[in-house]
Amino acid sequence: MQFISQRMWPIRRLSLGTRTQTRLFNNRPPYQRFNNKQKFWQTRTFWYTTGTGTVCGAIYYQSHLEDSPTGRRRFINVSSAEETQLGASAYMQTMATYRFQIVPHTSPVSQYVHKVAHRIIRAANIPGSWEIHVINSREKNAFVLPGNKIFVFSGLLSVANTEDALATVLAHEIAHVFARHSAEKLSAAKALQLLYIFVSLFVDPSAAEMGRSMATLLVELPNSRQCEQEADEIGLEFMARACYDPHQAVELWQRMQENEQMVPQLLSTHPSTAKRIENIRNMVPKALMKKEASCPPNDLTQTFFKQLGL
């Protein structure tokens, strides 16, 4: 038995040691892997930084609010010089793209478009020089770039088939420049881009992508439609000052509606044509008052007999 107990002694020591190790193991501090650390966006530093940034951002946003020509409050942090510089770059790219389709200024079509455009510009009393180009294309469209650059596709003249109808389109494009809608959109894009970067770096890149889609749907597209409606309103006033008939704007958009491809307004940068026609009808009486105040009586008489077909 003595021999056996001596043989068992190491086993008893081993058993005691195992119990001690077990007790120490159970009392150890909980093990945490490196990826179980507190996330950055859950820390006080993040919330202090976010709070400070939000307050500073709100102050910056408020300090860059201004009224549009129609009295609408909007955020703009792009200077006129920056806007002109971006427009010059876009102008060079556009000229390079359509270099073989630009109609010479000496052509009757180009001179006709120039005549209507400059009549509106003079009536609206907009300073600065303008570049006006006609592009030989079946496309029924026109667009304007910052820095007073207007492009008209010749296909548009098949729909804008009267001088008053063409004046509707050109006055609309001139109104975009007058209201600085390009600067407004660039300012919004810059602000949203900073927000995307912040969310991507400190929260979740996938959340930034989802936020980008939501911002396009809920911010960028509605703002674009609002700018288009504002350009319709200002443009109608400009063409009326130039002694063009505002009623022709309704007829133009009715013809445009026959040639358009239907796109849900929610997903479009422009109001639906039906909504546009309704808005313009409501704007016509105010535009007619501008016309009566700006145009000589003999011009009004000519317009009256022209509408009667005499």
How are the SSEs ordered, and which strands pair?
Layout: H1 2-26, H2 44-63, E1 65-67, E2 73-75, H3 80-97, H4 108-124, E3 131-135, E4 142-145, E5 149-153, H5 163-178, H6 181-202, H7 205-241, H8 247-259, H9 273-294, H10 297-308
Parallel strand pairs: 3-5
Antiparallel strand pairs: 1-2, 4-5
Helix pairs in contact: 4-5, 5-7, 5-8, 6-7, 7-9, 8-9
What can you see in these coordinates?
The protein is mainly alpha-helical and 310 residues long. The chain has helices at residues 2-26, 44-63, 80-97, 108-124, 163-178, 181-202, 205-241, 247-259, 273-294, 297-308; strands at residues 65-67, 73-75, 131-135, 142-145, 149-153. The chain has a 3-stranded mixed β-sheet with strand order 3-5-4. A two-stranded antiparallel ribbon has the order 1-2. Strand 1 (65-67) and strand 2 form a beta hairpin. Helix 4 (108-124) packs across helix 5 (163-178). 24% of the residues are buried.
Brief account:
This protein has 310 residues and is mainly alpha-helical.
Query: Strand pairing plus helix content: what structural class?
Result: mainly alpha
Rg from alpha-carbon coordinates: 33 Å
- Note the gap between the termini: 138 Å
Strand order of the largest sheet: 3-5-4
Name the descriptors.
310 residues, mainly alpha, 3-stranded mixed β-sheet, two-stranded antiparallel ribbon, 10 helices
